């Protein structure tokens, strides 16, 4: 598995020959990439806020998410193919298995006040379905979320992610301290911060997150440089990919 953070909550996940792009939003201060610099096989959307779907129209590939979100994007961005699925469901996208889990957040559409995106989501992504006996790493993209008990009771207990990307910007999501608790609850070995510094209300000191992770868990916190590809093997931690 290889991971690339493009700032905010935008991640590329590469599993074997399949490339997934989550929450494409390249108008953020961390990345130097343009939407057209990425050529995904599939796009995944966690929810319908503009800072998570803004660049979805740049891609000619299937877009997956809740039926409400992908239905809205199909109309608003003229998406040719969508895959609607829902909380608890697992779908196979090329070489990747993707399981949707809830996130604790809101989900209205700023550009369509009467539209709703249903429940916000996070994703667990790996080469094998959840609960399968497999040594391949599982990546948890938490989406925009607050701290929630399902992280300990369901995600950590049964789905067992190895790597967790968690929002730390506070104000709209968890802040550094609660995000570190989330890392402990899901039992990840590697913690990657996201959804911070994109605009003034979510500017934070990432050292606070790293210190909190060390205090609350046995995980390693890694503050990624945007646009840098990381190789995640069955033996963590991740290393910079060639």
TrEMBL record:
InterPro entries per record: Metallo-B-lactamas (IPR001279), RibonucZ/Hydroxyglut_hydro (IPR036866), UPF0173 (IPR022877), UPF0173_UPF0282_UlaG_hydrolase (IPR050114)
Keyword Hydrolase: yes
UniProt domain Metallo-beta-lactamase: residue ranges: 7-195
MF GO annotations: hydrolase activity
Record's keyword terms, sorted: Hydrolase
Top-level lineage group: Archaea
Protein family: Belongs to the UPF0173 family.
Protein name as catalogued: UPF0173 metal-dependent hydrolase HARCEL1_10265
Organism: Halococcoides cellulosivorans
């Amino acid at each position: 598995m290889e991971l690339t953070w493009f700032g905010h909550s935008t991640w590329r996940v590469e599993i074997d020959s399949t490339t997934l792009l989550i929450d494409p939003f390249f108008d953020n201060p961390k990345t130097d990439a343009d939407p057209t610099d990425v050529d995904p096989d599939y796009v995944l959307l966690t929810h319908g806020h503009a800072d998570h779907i803004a660049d979805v129209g740049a891609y000619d590939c299937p877009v997956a998410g809740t039926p409400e979100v992908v239905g809205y994007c199909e109309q608003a961005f003229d998406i040719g193919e969508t895959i609607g699925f829902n909380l608890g469901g697992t779908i196979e996208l090329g070489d990747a298995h993707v399981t949707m889990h809830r996130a604790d957040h809101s989900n209205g559409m700023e550009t369509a006040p009467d539209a709703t995106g249903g429940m916000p989501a996070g994703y667990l992504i790996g080469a094998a379905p959840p609960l399968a006996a497999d040594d391949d790493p599982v990546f948890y993209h938490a989406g925009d979320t607050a701290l929630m008990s399902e992280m300990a009771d369901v995600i950590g207990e049964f789905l067992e992610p190895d790597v967790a990307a968690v929002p730390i910007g506070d104000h709209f999501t968890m802040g550094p301290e609660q995000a570190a608790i989330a890392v402990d609850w899901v039992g990840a070995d590697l913690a990657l911060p996201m959804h911070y510094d994109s605009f003034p209300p979510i500017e934070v000191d990432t050292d606070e997150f790293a210190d909190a992770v060390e205090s609350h868990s046995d995980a390693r916190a890694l503050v990624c440089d945007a646009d840098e590809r990381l190789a995640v093997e069955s033996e963590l931690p991740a290393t910079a990919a060639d």
